[in-house]
């Protein structure tokens, strides 16, 4: 799993040293300009300060034949999309409109990105969609 520093900072009180995968303890690579001075002892977090490609290489090596996912904030997702490093996008629509925050699909440049719809599942609380990013 790859995430950004803000998501790490805000989720750490909930997930603790085990990270968001709980007792499975899957590695979490945190993109950041500077590693925190007080990460949890024995935690699953690895801090990456040298860019998205490096984070992806490290996550792929740790994942082996499993899937690497990018979770959390829009900024990290934008960096990976702009670098052409995303195979699929999952979008979960919930019935809430936020008045502020970072838009997920801002700052991606002027060119269009083609997507192929793979799945849409409606539930009472959200609509879950999945798209394949068509390579350019």
From TrEMBL:
Q: Which Pfam families match?
A: RibD_C (PF01872)
- Gene3D superfamilies, from UniProt? Dihydrofolate Reductase, subunit A (3.40.430.10)
- Compositional bias of type Polar residues: which residue ranges? 1-13
Bacterial bifunctional deaminase-reductase C-terminal domain boundaries: 55-125
Sorted alphabetically, which InterPro entries does this protein's record hold?
DHFR-like_dom_sf, RibDG_C
Q: Where is this region: Disordered?
A: 1-25
Which spans of this chain does the record mark as coiled coil?
Answer: none
What's the protein here called?
Bacterial bifunctional deaminase-reductase C-terminal domain-containing protein
Question: What is the species listed in this Swiss-Prot or TrEMBL entry?
Answer: Microlunatus ginsengisoli
């Amino acid at each position: 799993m790859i995430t950004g520093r803000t998501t790490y900072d805000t989720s750490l009180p909930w997930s603790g040293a085990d990270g968001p995968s709980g007792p499975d303890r899957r590695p979490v690579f945190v993109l950041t300009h500077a590693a925190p001075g007080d990460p949890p002892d024995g935690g699953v977090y690895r801090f990456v300060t040298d860019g998205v490609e490096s984070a992806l290489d490290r996550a792929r090596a740790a994942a082996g034949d499993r899937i690497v996912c990018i979770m959390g904030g829009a900024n990290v997702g934008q960096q990976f999309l702009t670098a052409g490093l995303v195979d699929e996008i999952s979008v979960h629509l919930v019935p809430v409109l936020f008045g502020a925050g970072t838009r997920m699909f801002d700052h991606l440049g002027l060119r269009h990105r083609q997507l192929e719809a793979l799945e849409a599942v409606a539930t009472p609380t959200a609509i879950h969609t999945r798209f394949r990013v068509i390579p350019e």
